[in-house]
Amino acid sequence: MSILLIEDDKGICNFLRLALTEAGYEVVITHNALSGIEAYYQDRPELVILDLGLEDLDGMEVIRQLRLDGAVPIIVVSAREADTEKVQALDLGANDYLTKPFSVAELLARIRAVLRLTSQLAQGAPKDPATTEASQVFTGDTFTVDFEARVVQLLDQAGQPDEEVHLTKKEFDLLQILARRPGYVLTHQYLQETVWGYSDEATAVSLRVYVRALRQKLKTELIKTEVGLGYRLLAAQ
Q: In 3D, which of 108, 88, 49, 97 has the Cα closest to residue 188?
């Protein structure tokens, strides 16, 4: 499993090289944006760890460039703590965002989570909520969603679809967006603009209300709040 690390702090690079190698990953390191992009196309890594504060190009531009080519998992590791930075990186296509300083254990856990999700997507789940459906059904911890039929059902004790759940159109639209990209953080702005067509204070309030309603109706613990960012629907274990 190969990882491309784009980071200009050589101390962090040496530290992460050791930690990632001990964890069984092959590591390619570059110290600026342009060499990182070149290494991506040359080595085709299976995951990218990216710093934002690079000397030649901002890391946000690196995300844009990599997303032009495909869906390689990108984990941002940055000292930038502002919610606006996190939201922008996620909206551009980063899969996760970790703020410096961080623990190696947490980074490794996030790498495993992103790679696990990537593997699931490669086996048939849709890569983007707006794309055509490779799978028409999502199964959660307490519920199942049939996208084509627009039917949501609670699961019985045996894990089989049972009682149908009535959702409003917007509740279903919101659930569908989350369920088509399980494991990904979808930002408040993205969800507001996708479900309502625009984002303002009113739709921000409505989003919170609809998420609360979905949790109650579906009796689920899989819809997670990412504070200051948005929401994430976890895949059932």
A: 88
